[in-house]
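Colleagues,

For the teaching module next term, I've prepared a clean inverse folding example: a structure given as tokens, and then the sequence designed for it. I'd like students to try predicting residues themselves before seeing the answer, so please don't circulate the second half yet.
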């Protein structure tokens, strides 16, 4: 009987230790620690690639405003929403084109370059981990007078 009385205490202690371990990992701010790596143990590259695929789907579907929402704060400062939406509506170079990510290449622990292709077009989205999620740092170029300031280089690892 004595062995059975210790079991609930042991289970409680194990649950508390696991909870503390998860909380401490989530507080270090890295994509892996905060769960931004995706479900089922996906890597940061896979999570960034999934976010990039979602972004490409918004472009293909003509949701310019929704695509802009997924940009990094720096990208949003370089190109205002209204400018991007107007350019997308005027040009719509990727509208209804099936776009797919091809590969993801980590630049550092918070930056991943994701190659994409579709409809004879191709490019690279730079994805950055910001505010708890993967965001687009460099939107695909459009050829209808969309102008922006150049993107800064990726920060070095460290």
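(Answer key — instructors only)
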């Amino acid at each position: 009987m004595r062995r059975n009385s210790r079991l609930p205490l042991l289970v409680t202690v194990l649950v508390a230790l696991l909870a503390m371990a998860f909380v401490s990992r989530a507080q270090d701010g890295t994509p892996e620690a905060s769960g931004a790596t995706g479900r089922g143990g996906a890597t940061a590259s896979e999570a960034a690639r999934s976010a990039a695929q979602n972004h490409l789907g918004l472009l293909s579907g003509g949701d310019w405003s929704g695509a802009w929402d997924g940009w990094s704060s720096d990208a949003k400062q370089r190109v205002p929403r209204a400018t991007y939406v107007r350019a997308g509506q005027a040009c719509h170079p990727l509208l209804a084109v099936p776009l797919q990510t091809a590969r993801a290449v980590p630049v550092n622990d918070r930056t991943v370059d994701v190659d994409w292709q579709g409809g004879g077009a191709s490019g690279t989205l730079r994805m950055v981990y910001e505010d708890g999620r993967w965001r687009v740092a460099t939107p695909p170029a459009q050829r209808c007078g969309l102008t922006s300031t150049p993107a800064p280089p990726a920060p070095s690892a460290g």
